[in-house]
Amino acid sequence: MNTDKSKITIAIDGYSSSGKSTMAKHLASEIGYRYIDSGAMYRAVTLFAMRHNMIDSNGAIDTEALIKALPAIRIDFRPTDGGQITLLNDEDVEKEIRSLAVSSHVSEIAAIPSVRHALVAMQQAFGREGGIVMDGRDIGTTVFPNAELKIFVNASAETRAQRRLAEMLEKGANVSFEEVLANVVHRDHIDETREESPLRKADDALLLDNSTMSPEEQNSLLMEMFRNALNRQA
Ligand code: CDP
Q: Which pLDDT value is given to residue 16?
């Protein structure tokens, strides 16, 4: 239980590639909080399933085998200068989990209730002390329903695909705008329609549409939201 009122919990949810990770990382470093990327955790489980041949060439998942293996999956984060590195059973998988191959299976993996239960428990353990910024799809609704500050981020699918494409090309990936857009739209659909914790804005979340916002405008708006949330605690 968080008893230090100066260390609140911040939940940032939103659509794929809405810029929520960049925003969450930046805010956490400005205010000296820990940042946790919950999407990286679903990606790490997906990579684990791919490596253990639990996903066949048609994309069908051996759910039973994956559920059995869940206790053997340990996910952690190592802080670096500008962010953090995702560790899967102590191995640095940061680069591999961002590939289009992982992206194309992650939403199906994230729709499996047992996978969600296991990861939500890990996420709640990370946030036990407060002083955390976590981003994802269900952080304000399921993981931290009592978070003192909840933000829901959105931007148009085309804007989001454009951003994701630029990020992937910079990392040397060989992908087209159409492929990336198709992946964004596909994941939106699965995230919104799954039965377990579908993506939706929590009633008490503040909406932030950053389609036409500069990073500076976005950062100052976030700081204002943070200060207001702190004032409400005082
Ligand atoms: O970076 P991007 O926003 O595209 O995705 P991500 O945050 O890395 O998350 C990858 C996928 O994991 C999403 O498309 C969701 O299907 C799933 N996810 C989820 O279901 N719940 C979360 N809290 C975080 C991610």
A: 85
